[in-house]
Write a structure and sequence with these properties.
There is one protein chain. The protein folds into two domains: 114 residues, NAD(P)-binding Rossmann-like Domain (Rossmann fold); 177 residues, NAD(P)-binding Rossmann-like Domain (Rossmann fold), CATH 3.40.50.720. The strands form two sheets. It has a seven-stranded parallel beta sheet, sandwiched between helices. A five-stranded parallel beta sheet has the order 2-1-3-4-5. The protein is an alpha/beta fold. The chain is elongated, with a radius of gyration of 22 Å. Helix 1 packs parallel to helix 12, helix 5 crosses helix 8 and helix 9 packs parallel to helix 10. The protein binds 2-keto-D-gluconic acid (8YV). 2-keto-D-gluconic acid binds next to loops.
Length: 314
Amino acid sequence: MTKPTILTFESYDDWDVEPLEAAYKVYNLPYEGKVSDLPADAITEVEAFAFRGHGVLGADIINAFPKLGMIANYGVGYDTIDVDHASSRGVRVTNTPDVLTDDVADLVIGMIIAQSRGIVGASNWVHSGNWARNGAFPLQSKVSGKRFGIVGLGRIGRAVAERLQPFGGDVYYYSRTKKDAPQWTHCTDIVSMAEKVDVLVITVSGGPETAGLIGAETLTALGPQGLLVNASRGTTVDEAALLDALETGTIRSAALDVYDNEPHIDPRFLTLDNVLLQPHQSSGTVETRKIMGQLQRDNLAAYFAGKPLLTPVN
Ligand code: 8YV
C-alpha cells in the first residue's frame, strides 16, 4: 500500500522522525523555508501537515496544497494557524492539549521563585567571585504569602494556581466568566486585579482576542514591587510598554518565556538585568515532547484511518 504524503515543518527529534517516516512519505519545510522551494511533487501530493513552531500558517500556505485535509499541530496553542480559513476549506486542525500542562505550570513556578529570589543573579554572584570579594548577595523578595494574579484560568492557569496554593498567599484570577474555583478570587478587570497582586502570571491563549491584553495601565497597577510572568504568547503583552516599565522601574521585574518576534527578540531585553529570559521552552522536556509527538501522530493516524480525531480544534 502506498504511504500517504505529509509535510513536516521545522525539525523533529529522531524519536519523531522515525515513526513519521515509517508511516508516511515525508517532505520537510525547514525553519524559515519557503513553500516555493519544495519539489513540485510535494505540492500535489501532500495531504496533511505535521506543523511545528510559531511561524504564520495562513491562507496562502493552506491554499498552496490542493489535497491538504489535515493540520496536526505540535503544541497546544494554534494562534498562528488560520483555523477559520482551514475550516472554510474543510481542513481539519488538531493540537496537543493537556499533555504539556504540567511542564508549563512547573516552569512558571520556577520562574516566579527564580526571579523573586534572584537565583540566576545569585549564582553569578558566586561564579564571579563577588561573594568572596564583596560579601553577601543583596536581599531579595519573599515568595510564600504573596498575592498572585493569574490572567486566564484555562488548563494551564488552573495548574499554576494549584501549584501556588501551598505558598499560602491569595490567588486571584481574571477570566471573562467565573470558573468553578471557589478557593480563588474571580476578577473581571485586569487592571484592578493587578493593583491587588504582587505577581501577575499570564497563561491566556494567544491570538487577536488577547493581543495587547496587558498594557501600560496594567503594568502601572502592578507597581514597582511587582513581577510579571508570561508563559502564554508574546502578543498578549504590549512589549514596548513592558520594556519601558522594566527600564523605568514601573515594575520590579519580569520573567518571560515568550516574545513578539521569536527568536529574534527585541535587543532592549538583553541589556536589562531585571528580566529573566527563557527561550520559549515551557513544554521543553524530553518526557513531554515525546508525548506531544505521539499525540500529533495519533491525530494524523486517526485522520488517515477516517476515525474521530483525538484532540480536534475545528
Ligand atoms: C510549542 C507551545 O508547541 O504548545 C504550545 O502552544 O507554545 C509550545 O509547546 C513548542 O515550543 C514547539 O514548537
